[in-house]
Design goal:
single chain, 85 residues, alpha+beta, 2 helices, 56% helix
């Protein structure tokens, strides 16, 4: 016989999914780093910028956040919780 999850558990997972969905992109793409390289010749000077965690780190954090959101939504929207055996 399956146990029915409490309404509080559904709300917890839904809230966690929404928080991760909002906060991960804000933190990953909101904190940026930049650096400039100056030269005597103006044609050689340039600046670069990007996410503070780097391009690969941004992709991994967003993918990890996406996996968490999917799992949290599955738990929040499921009608039954897992039973222990």
């Amino acid at each position: 016989m399956a146990n029915v999850a409490s309404p509080g558990a559904h709300g917890f997972w839904l809230g966690a999914a929404i928080m991760v969905l909002v906060l991960v992109p804000v933190v990953v793409f909101g904190s940026r780093t930049s650096e400039c390289f100056d030269s005597v010749s103006a044609a050689v000077s340039y600046c670069t910028s990007g996410p503070a965690v780097g391009g690969g780190g941004a992709v991994l954090l967003c993918l990890g956040g996406g996996v968490f959101v999917v799992q949290a939504l599955r738990r929040a929207l499921s009608g039954r919780s897992r039973t222990s055996r």
